[in-house]
Write a structure and sequence with these properties.
Elements lengths: L1 E4 L1 H7 L3 E3 L9 H9 L3 H6 L7 E4 L2 E3 L10 E5 L6
Parallel strand pairs: 1-5
Antiparallel strand pairs: 1-2, 3-4, 3-5
């Protein structure tokens, strides 16, 4: 599965994207963020407040409780503001 990171999430993780194999027990976007936060200090910092991070599965915005089964790409980004 491809993971993509944008804006300050990318800066904190230290990369824009990566390919990973997820453990079988990761079922939702929330599960994935929790798992990522345990991957190291940079991920813990990026995902320290998962309630404000937005996600998209295969370029469609989704809620944190959305199942990730069958996803090809999941993107994470901070809240967007207009201006």
């Amino acid at each position: 599965m491809k993971l993509r990171y944008f804006a300050w999430v990318r800066e904190r993780v230290g990369r824009g994207e990566e390919e990973i194999a997820l453990p079988a027990d990761i079922g939702t976007v929330n599960d994935l963020m929790s798992w990522l936060a345990g991957r190291g200090e940079e991920y813990a910092h990026a995902f320290e407040n998962p309630k404000i991070i937005r996600a998209a599965i295969d370029r469609n915005h989704v809620r944190p409780d959305t199942a990730i089964a069958g996803a090809q790409e999941i993107a994470f980004f901070p809240p967007m503001t207009g201006g």
